[in-house]
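Notebook entry, structure prediction.
Reason for the run: the old model in the group folder had no record of what sequence produced it. Starting over properly, with the input documented here first.
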Amino acid sequence: MSDKMIFTPTKYQLQTVATGRVFDDQGWTLDDKQCDKPSMVRPVYEKKQLQVKEGRCWGLYRYADWLPIKTMLANPSEPVTYKSEGLANRLGLRNLYITFNGYWPERNARMTTCSFKEMEAFSVCARLGEELKDKVLVVASAGNTARAFAKVCSDNGIKLLLCVPQDNINALWFDKPLNDCVKLITTESGSDYFDAINLSNVVCEMDGYLAEGGAKNIARRDGMGTTMMSATTFIGRTPDFYFQAVGSGTGAIAAWEANLRFVEDGRFGTNKARLMVSQNKPFLPMYEAWRADSRALLPYDADQARKDAAEICAPVLSNRKPPYGLAGGLFDALKDTHGDILAVSNTEANAAKALFEETEGIDIYHAAAVATASLQQAIEKEVVKADDVVMLNITGGGEKRFQADHEMYYLKPNHIFKIDFTKEEVERVLTAMR
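New structure, fully documented this time:
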């Protein structure tokens, strides 16, 4: 890194959304132990105005003022925002801004895992302090998050254990062999993301392992919030609409939280972007709850959920236990921004995927295609008008381009667990893996 890249750890405190209590971060705080109901905690940054660092070499650490980090890691990437012409013209929009997360060298987009999950990994792992360096970070994932954490941890020598459904491990591709500090365990074929989360929870009860924390990890959310930081600083104001497909909804919550900071910043307007999030039919737990105006998710049979998850073209959107109803979760974010949840079929997503590649010139993931299709729905319903300032978060793209340019290596599991695994079995396997 350049000698001009002077970094000091970000100063912040934590605030509980449900109660407003402000307190100090103990290093890896995920919850307020003094709060008696489910609630997010958020960082309250010392710097109220975001000063974006100059130079692409910083990667997402350009936004370090609003990231709860202690250090900078090697090879950081960042989202890239640009004003669309091709897709915008086809959709009849005059102010469509695309925030692209993936591999597209001509746009200076260089996420080698091709997913915005890199923003989570570069932020979360930079939050790790010296007191946690001997712990093994545990991450449950449906695929893209695992690939991102594996890349970042491998490049930076951070011990990592991934928990992924066996049917999703084809997503664990890389352009070079990984450091052996990265290990993988899976749940058997036919399992889903929720089963992988259950496995990770058992692992985290063992000594020496550290739960990454998912949506409750402030670094994960604010890392994902760099998409809104990229768009708002590029446009010069917060957008009118924010479109993204969601599995957990964490990225949309992160965009909302970043938006609130921009309002407090004072230089980007007082607008709150309407969160327009989407799920992939037939896996629609948050869509169904939202349509029922329910803070709680509706009952969803586990076997039916696995069946529905197996049918969607974007399996990364198949989280059965998202951070939806807790204080500061997606339900609150949607209410505060007058947002909505839309449902997109595989047919609609596939058509949108082809349209994006035709008009913008780069391939995108099915999850990003779901978001693009939801934007088309909103235009057809006249919710979005031609002059509205719209941010479309393309959460992954350029994989076809990247894989054509690089030799691929795949991470193989160290062990495959059945869905009805026992704690004793997990302990025995992990002890042997050390």
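Summary: The radius of gyration is 20 Å.
The old model has been moved to the deprecated folder.
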